[in-house]
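hey so u asked for the seq, here:
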Amino acid sequence: MTEPVVFGAAYSVYVRAVRLALAEKGVPYRLEEVDIFAEGGPPPGYLERHPFARIPAFEHDGFRLHEATAISLYIDEVFEGPPLMPTNARARARVHQLLGILDNYAYRTLVWDVFVERVRVAQSGGTPDEAKIAAALVRARTCLAAVESLMGEGPWLAGERVSLADLRAFPMFALFRKAPEGARLLDSYPGLARWFEAMAARPSVLATPSPVDEA
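ran it, structure tokens below
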């Protein structure tokens, strides 16, 4: 069986989520850097891997995939190692619910409207849009409250074991916390704050650093 390849950029939250799944399963892999924002667009041939020019894309033994959820589920089912999806139908549904919240509501709000606007715009010498950030923080509060309410007893987002929900959430929350307002808001939710600290110490997280961590 050949080593799987992840196509994407190390800074991407969705690429990191896939890499976290591989690390949790103990699967060696290769990250092939793809800059979709490069002048002139993605590298030649990349649209054959991902027709929408997004990241990540994935290949294993000649089998190609794109979309982080499909890739992560494939990794969980094909490779040995601790399961990343519950066996109970209700618990699996909870993971999918959390993935839906993270993808549909949290990602744009936490990453683009708070982290990028507060941190990246300032780093590039621009002026952050304070009104945009303020509006995003209202939406962020709704997202964080919804996620924490689904944790129950925890300690992980979907119960007693780390799941794909944790691996999807952590890269988003890690960027969100780089904005001072994001850190304060996340810390105001005790369950999520404890969860974030526990995730940050996991070997899989330490093995998949993002270049943004050093910025």
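The two ends are 37 Å apart (CA to CA). The CA atoms of residues 93 and 165 lie 11 Å apart.
lmk if thats what u needed
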